[in-house]
Amino acid sequence: MPSFPARRSPAMANRNQSPRAGDGAHPAPDALASAAGAVGLVIALNKPVYPLYVWFVAESALHASLLAALTMPLYLAVWFLARKGWSLTARMGVVLVGTADTVMIAFLMGQDSGTLAFLFACIMLGGQAFYASERWLSRTLIALPFVALALLYGRIGAPFVSIQQEDMEGLRYLNITGAAGLAAFIALRFPRREA
Description:
By secondary structure, this protein is mostly helical.
């Protein structure tokens, strides 16, 4: 008698589990994990290009932007986890990596760089990347970037790497429009609820 693979339940598609322990199979990514992975991939693909933008609008910030590109593998890991069916890990990862990355870059580039605006995208991800049954996890991951913003805004100070003051306006414009563009992509990419 032929053996058929075990059918995956919808609940299992939302968890980091295999249908059978030890067989190495992972569920296909669900819609939220797919969207979280797409966000991770878009950010990862933007990381090598970001220094070119910075060089064009704020040349003295080039060295800081090169350091900011070092987190690209973390976003690729989020995309990889989503593709391999590690839904919850990928969805949590995109919020946690995004928050940590934003805070690190804010300290590199300083308060006036506008980098903290990316925390608004992290707040959106915390709200959109989770199911109703994951309400408390979602609330926690909404609170994390919000608290980071509230604690850090106005307290970061000068950039870690020297950036000329005249370049800060261009850098701030670049970061704020980049954060708005990322928020727009998140709003468009995540699935809509049925009426």
